[in-house]
Amino acid sequence: MKEYSLEPLEFRPILKRLIWGGRKLGRVLGKPIGPESDYAESWEIADRRDDVSVVASGRFAGQSLRELVRTRGDELLGAAIGPKEQFPLLVKYLDAERVLSVQVHPDDELGARLAGDNGKSEAWFVLQADPEALIYAGLKPGVDRSTFQRAIESGTVEPLLHRFHPEPGDCVMIHAGTVHAIGGGVLLAEIQQMSDATFRVYDWGRVGPNGEPRALHVEQALEATDFEIGPVDPLRSPIQAFESGTYQDLAECKYFKIKRYRIDRRCAIGSSDRFTIVLGVSGEGEIESSTGARLSVAAGRTILIPAATGKNIVNPAGTVEFLTCVAPSTS
Ligand SMILES: [Zn+2]
Asked: Which of 65, 111, 165, 190 could form a disulfide with 197 if both were Cys (CB 3.0 to 4.6 A apart)?
């Protein structure tokens, strides 16, 4: 007999410093950053190699996500997701103070073969963007493998990339095989497969912390790029009304499905056959679970609702905006 049943969980952030990071993870999202100027990523829900989330508070404080997936998989993941060795999604916040490298991620088959990792399809939800900020997503129409290869070899990749000025609230679906770069001045939430398989094709002529250019992975990137994808723009789906406010269907792929809610009345979130991830966007509210747990919903807060807790109530303090993310059935 297990002493307690699972409750909604919040994890300690795993902070990553990289050359393109800044200080917004602390300043805007309240993450516990130190004095340095290059805080790039906050991994909120992670179960990959040495990066494993640990529960921050409540009855399960100190337990790792990996341990919970292995010992309480049915309760946590739910029957629709089935037993898993590893939590299937990675959720992080990124502060691109400067542009990231131009990169591409493999699909599952190539990820296993070339990187010993899962494939990586990812979705971005823009939280803040400077007026001049850019996102590069997809290749311009007609760019084929040989054109792209020549551009990589001559360091002239940028003119081949489709780009746009992102705005807060934009959601961008980056399927595996899409060439992309997040530009400087963008703060976003990223939901992706649990993977870190990245092939870098261009790093804007800059050097890493050791004064040397960071490694490029040209062969692998050419193999991983899907030249059929073409330009990628933010998703524009209709905002729909329901009894508690509005919702919008955002990115959807084989691995996850994201919805955006804006509510000013109580609303039920979660389902007993699968886990639900909640990410606060703006305003404030609280998740009230039947387990008695109470967790704040606000910008920078990420909550994992175990399947076994069923429906949980989100209680807005005024208006609260948040994303939910679920995984489709495995079968
Ligand atoms: Zn990426």
From this structure: 111
